[in-house]
Input
Amino acid sequence: MKSVLDLKPGETGVIQAFANDNDLKNKLIGMGCLPGENIRISKAAPLGCPIAIDIAGYELSLRKDEAACILIETDR
Output
């Protein structure tokens, strides 16, 4: 399964699950990253951190470790 880190700006996916870090999982759920939500990478810093995603009608910035925890399904 792919993670948010596998997407490039403009690409989309659907959140399926989270990696096995319960503290980080709970933090991401609290920020609106719920299974079934559509996600789009809006931009990324030159070195890949942070990553800005569009989710649930707002833009959220994530660190690489947070983005790697979000497992997604893509249309590709």
In short: DSSP finds two helices and six strands in the chain.
